[in-house]
Amino acid sequence: MRFAEFFAGVGLVREGLESSGWQCVWANDISADKMSTYVENYGGDHFYLEDIWKVAAEADDILPKNVFLYTASFPCTDLSVAGSRAGLAGAESGTLNAVLNILKEKKLANDLPKIVMLENVSGFLTSHGGRDVIETVKTLSELGFVVDIIELDAALFTPQSRPRVFLIAVIKDIASKFMLLKKSEDLFDTWWQRYDEQPKLRSTKLKKLIASNEQLNWGLFDIPLPKQRTSTLEDIIEYDIPNDSSLWWSDDRKNHLLAQMNPAHLAKLQAMMDSELFSYGTVFRRMRAGVSMAELRTDGIAGCLRTPRGGSSKQILVRAGNGELGVRLLTPREYARLQGVRDSFILPNNINKGYFAMGDAVCVPAIEHLSKHALIPIFKCSQLT
After folding, report:
1. pTM of the complete model beyond 0.85
2. Catalytic residue among 76, 304, 363, 381
């Protein structure tokens, strides 16, 4: 089961796929820092450090042949609510078009992968009123793929709120043996009904997008919800950080954070401090009406991790109880645990690079889940043809 990964980052898609038997034969990213972490963990004999557009221009010479699966966790910058919302017209998220160009070249060379899996933020579904994702599906349909779109939140697997969209495209002759294909004569509601009971995997927003573009090559995987998550924020914390560590904030810095909280969040924090037992929460700074506000979360789940392009993008941990309050940033290792990454995974020595490594990566158990219930069954179907 050979796969190639575009926008490989530090290798968390690979981390999720290799655990179920996939073999990575080629990987690409433009970031030398991310490549360094990738190579530390997996070796670098198959890693190609280059701009994806240059890869697309020389795809026949660069890419290996007879690869079953392509994955692409392309940049979310122009699709994210926190970004410019330029969509696939943007310089960063628009790099998906380079991958689509590679697929067009591969079709001409009769060397298309049998599966393509794209991953991005939920904004992929709403960018330019949904036109960006529909144009992507249209291109894949023209290339002979059948497409399903799955919405998976990391919170189903780890204590991190991280909704993501996974677009899985399968060559039609294989898809017809495993997926429920939408045929032109099928009533939409009849075709969709079997899977309409999984709103956590396919939202009403997605349903409307598909319903208004029935002519494209749509198919559905029968993917179950994962088992109920039992882990909480407290399960990912590094408890061996001593109280006198410089990682813990000074009183002045803590007071500045408290000054950014509204009364409701301050009341929640005070209740934590008044308890005889220590408890934990996370704080994320957000702009509200042009003012930076510190918002406390105490439901045992961290907010969505981001890359540290500014101080406000780093997630803050609070520990409160017995009248005490401790505040520090989550560590890169805690970030990694929130992404479902094993503790033996080698992180960068530089803390900020560690945040970058994990902040825009994928949740490993989500990849494992999709591999088990979609990618591997498709591969097995292909062996029967």
Report:
1. yes
2. 76
